Amino acid sequence: MFDVEAIRAQFPAMNQEVHGKPLVYLDSAASTHKPTAVLEAITDGYSVNYSNVHRGVHTLSQRATEAYEAARHTTKDFLGAADEAEIIFTRGTTESINLVAHAWGLDHLRAGDEILVTEMEHHSNIVPWQLVCQRTGARLRYVPLLDDGSISLDAYAELLSAKTKMVSVVHVSNALGTINPVAEMIQMAHDVGALVCVDGAQAVQHLAVDVAALGCDFYAFSAHKLYGPTGIGVLYGKREHLEAMSPYQGGGDMIRTVSFDGSTWASLPNKFEAGTPAIVQAVGLGAAIDWLTAIGFEAIASHEDELLRYGTEQLQTLGALRLVGTATRKSSVLSFVMEPAHPSDIGTILDLEGVAVRVGHHCAQPVMKRFGVPATCRASLGIYNTHADIDRLLQGLRTCVKMFG
Ligand code: C6P
């Protein structure tokens, strides 16, 4: 049985006041809070089992290495990957996508080739490809959005061609909440011989993801949006692609041999993990995955989907408010404008009411342009949110309506 109060009790950060009011945290798409299971794993990782990994024969180094590699094993099972070699620890989604763009793109793209992304991508899934296009002469093309914030598979099909070498697509949009039909998109891309990279930054905390079932070539996510620590993320890559790619960065731990004449590379996954990795963050990520999977995605999705339904219904009672992103398949994001108030003013008023939302372009400027708004207010849901949180958001928004008319 999903007991939201029992879940909230595991998040120390939820138990505080902001401006004299109990905190309502509706900014989980930016970063989630951490349950005690994760906080304790981090404390333990530093206070009991801490040392550098893959380098020492002494006991602490061996224990740290075991804990770090156990987190990789947990992540492999979580994503349904075939092998630990396919799980690369990075700094986060941003670095994961940059790794693919540079380590795969620079060697495989040339003038005349095309990369497809959608108009709803986070800047992390646009700019790395722009950088690689500048260096290779490849062309970046954008799948347009429909008015509800979904993409049309027909428009996507028209853009796909033998020139398409990579499709890089967000699984769940951070600015709109749209869940993209990635399984179909992957199949369609593979039919023209293109690879697919999925940005799962807003998906893995809400939906069960199985990379083998999806068939994607790469999948990226960040731990800090999955109730885990900052500073660590994951790149899943099919072994055959990772084997064929050159290293992204050079340094310690990614080599087999080094001489003044040249170097050879360590096997996967170390080839892509140069330098001392985020050891304790990996342990925290493993704890977050264990914690989340013990609750189960069926229960999580049904709780969050009900809150999304309730929030959508309640926001629509405010005549002045316009939702941005109304696709049929959505997850956990309520993005809106309420003219004439500017989103920043709304965010400030809500903060004074103890309600945390994000305002701005959400690192998705092309989405703002598509919907003709400079910015939106975004209330994003996490496992610890309740109907009462939505009611407090509504109460704060009614104050805004009174102030701005
Ligand atoms: N979105 C948000 O408030 P990093 O910063 O590397 O952990 O994640 C980048 C990223 C990539 N893709 C998507 C879909 C994302 O939502 C994010 C991060 C946060 O929406 C911070 S901008």
Task: Provide the CATH topology of the largest domain.
Answer: Aspartate Aminotransferase, domain 2
Look at the helices and sheets and give the structural class: alpha/beta
What does the main sheet amount to? Answer: 7 strands, mixed
CATH homologous superfamily of the largest domain - what is it? Answer: Type I PLP-dependent aspartate aminotransferase-like (Major domain)
Low-pLDDT parts are none
Proportion in β-strands: 15-25%
CATH architecture of the largest domain: 3-Layer(aba) Sandwich
Describe the structure.
The structure is a single chain. By secondary structure, the protein is α/β, with parallel strands linked by helices. The protein has 2 domains: 136 residues, Aspartate Aminotransferase, domain 1, CATH 3.90.1150; 254 residues, Aspartate Aminotransferase, domain 2. 40% of the residues lie in helices and 17% in strands. It has 14 helices and 17 strands. Strands 4-10-9-8-7-5-6 form a 7-stranded mixed beta sheet, sandwiched between helices. It has a 4-stranded antiparallel beta sheet with strand order 13-14-17-16, with helices on one face. Strands 1-2 form a two-stranded antiparallel ribbon. Helix 11 runs parallel beside helix 14. The radius of gyration is 22 Å and the shape is globular. 48% of the residues are buried. The model has no long low-confidence stretch (mean pLDDT 97). The protein binds ligand C6P. The site of ligand C6P has 16 residues, from helix 4.
